[in-house]
Design goal:
Radius of gyration: 20 Å
Shape: globular
Order of helices and strands: EHEHEHEHHEHEHEEEEHEEHEHEHH
Helix content: 25-40%
Strand content: 15-25%
Distance between the termini: 55 Å
Strand order of the largest sheet: 3-2-4-5-7-6-12
Number of strands: 14
Structural class: alpha/beta
Number of helices: 12
Largest sheet: 7 strands, mixed
Length: 337
């Protein structure tokens, strides 16, 4: 991939190609950027995102790690402390549970524990979400777990352009950043600016402006919310769709402004409904002046309180779909405070 020849052009590419382009750009311009993870070299990664990068940059910068998420993540954190900028890929974000000690107890805390004298500029790439028939141990949405931890930043790109821009922003950040990439989005194509640019961490995007109800979503749920909003427009309901992009830090200003405008709020997320992003945003509204603008109670639409099933029909039923988002908005529009 010759990205230097494409610096000033916008091209159509897939979500996974955009991620790979961000890595290539960074590795070409910064010799301290390295890639680490299981099978990311010759095999090209579980989802082929690092395809051919070992040929381009060699095994000293594209490093296959042993089957030990805890060990690999620990080496990445240590490498970051020495001045390198590692991008560590988990084959499935679920496997990060094996490396919680290094992510939550080391990477997130070392700047604080060392009095600000050290930073940990590591990026963890996290293929996440359901819809591939990979069942309970390979299909979770764990972003809220990590969003709970001070010292970590958590992002969820929904488009190829943001997949590239948020990864580049993560690499520029001096602290650990977790990038949750939805597996169903890897083949999705979209327009991606050439060259180096960043999508700011902590800044949401209004994907569809509306006046009747606000739908806050992230990752693949943004696309389902937009499809639902299109159907709702046929019913005369004008929905505004906000793409969070960052879970932590979260863009309070954009959400509060939208709620003040529409008076109704639906929060859609794939993770289990309880103790999730919806609860955080609901509390944020309750603690702000935007609460006084509500015309109906806030509604959360999250994943089922169960492991993700293997059966395709049950897997689909376990997380919000276009029709359930549509139905939730219709229900919300019929309620009053």
């Amino acid at each position: 991939m010759d990205v230097t020849a494409q610096e000033n052009s916008t091209r159509t590419m897939s979500y996974s190609e955009a991620i790979r382009e961000a890595m290539v750009l960074s590795m070409q311009s910064d010799p301290t950027v390295i890639l680490m993870g299981e099978d990311i070299g010759v095999y090209g990664g579980a989802f082929q995102v690092t395809l051919d990068l070992i040929d381009k940059f060699g095994p000293e910068r594209v490093i296959d790690t042993p089957i030990s998420e805890l060990g690999g993540a620990g080496v990445a954190v240590g490498a970051a402390l020495t001045g390198l900028k590692p991008i560590f890929e988990f084959q499935f974000s679920d496997f990060a549970t094996l490396a919680m000690e290094q992510i939550v107890n080391q990477a997130a805390k070392l700047r604080y524990m060392l009095g600000g004298e050290a930073s940990v500029p590591v990026v963890f790439r996290m293929p996440a979400g359901s819809g591939t028939g990979a069942a309970a141990q390979h299909s979770q949405s764990l972003e809220a777990w990590f969003g709970h931890v001070p010292g970590l930043k958590v992002v969820q790109p929904s488009t190829p352009a943001d997949a590239k821009g948020l990864l580049l922003a993560a690499l520029a950040d001096p602290d650990p950043v977790l990038v949750f990439e939805h597996k169903l989005l890897y083949k999705m194509k979209g327009e991606v600016p050439g060259g180096h640019y960043v999508t700011p961490l902590g800044k949401a995007a209004i994907r569809r402006a509306g006046s009747d109800v606000t739908i806050v979503a992230a990752s693949i749920m943004v696309h389902r919310a937009l499809d639902a909003a299109q159907q709702l427009s046929s019913d005369g309901i004008d929905a505004e769709v906000i793409d969070l992009r960052s879970i932590r830090p979260i863009d309070q200003e954009t959400i509060l402004a939208s709620v003040r405008k529409t008076g109704r709020l639906l929060i859609v997320y794939e993770g289990v409904k309880s103790y999730g992003i919806g609860a955080e945003i609901s509390a944020m509204i309750a603690e702000s002046d935007a609460f006084d603008f509500l015309d109906a109670p806030i509604l959360r639409l999250g994943g089922a309180e169960a492991p993700i099933p293997y059966n395709p029909d049950l897997e689909r039923a376990a997380v919000p779909q276009v029709e359930t988002i549509y139905a939730a908005v219709r229900r919300l529009m019929s309620r009053e405070v």
